Predict the 3D structure of the following.
Amino acid sequence: MTLLNRENYQAMYKDKPTDLYTLKNKNGIVIQATNYGGKIESLYVPDRDGFFKDITFGYENIDGCINGDKYFGALVGRYANRIAGGSFAIDGQGYHLPLNNGPNTLHGGTSGFDDAVWDAEEIKTDLGQAIRFTYLSVDGEQGFPGNMSAEVIYTLTDDNRLIIDYKATTDKPTIVNLTQHAYFNLAGHDAGEMLNQEVVVNADRFTPVNENLIPTGELRSVEGTPLDFRTPHALGERINDTTYEQIVKGKGYDHNFVLNKDSGELSFAASAYDKENGRFLEVFTTQPGIQLYTGNFLNGSQEGKNGAVYNYRNGFCLETQHFPDSPNQPGFPPVVLRPGEVYKQQTIFKFSVK
């Protein structure tokens, strides 16, 4: 296990210092994250024979983080996923955001939370070692209203859970949807295609999208479609099923699933399993949705740790979230945060073998 060098992440960006933080539990699992975008840069977990590999995309230094793919391992906000036309309204007041994904705003705009230097501190909790990230997103930043204070805590427990606690408050009505955008490959970040890895998603429905990957507003059953992951399926099994229009529009999987749950409860959302090495990842969340993304837009232009090249479909994401374009979809769970309210969400990534 070769850990990333902390000094390689120590620099100044936007007049604030960047750094790298390391969490380790008693079983040897290691997570390294930088306060630049809250990005998880390495994640070492064992296989069924006890051999550790780094299973997440990342870079070896801060220059790679800043100049490379914006979203590898990042905290995403103020609003994760897409907002149609980069516009929305609260109480009849319209707001306009920069477009950075064709006609859409994606993941908070041209300089979202992924491009912010967060204040960070290592803390100890009853559950394990933790890093607390805090950031003040000022009124008007990327077009969003209100001064919004965000706090995200990564906690690594001795029972091999990464607990991510999200919290936010605001002084004006605004919208918020935070997530973690790690790319996983359970065979190792440098292992190439991950299409043999099996995924389960605890969802009877998903939100189909139009040609711009914006939800139509429909909550469609997964029954009889390539998006039915209620039982285990290898990612590659149906990913090229061009007879199904949603696969064509997403260029594979790039869809939000409506999780089977009561509102706000912490419950099982998804899992991923590599039969060859036994690594097993489970995801639990209080969020109403989860985005399965299979690296359909990766093109080999990103060189990561140890010279690894991240190519098409070399990693997958399981982004717990509110639904895409919710501010413009009255039938979706609400995403408006008002003064006096507290936005709270929790997601847990649990690592084991079988």
The CA atoms of residues 93 and 145 lie 10 Å apart. The chain has one domain: 6-353.
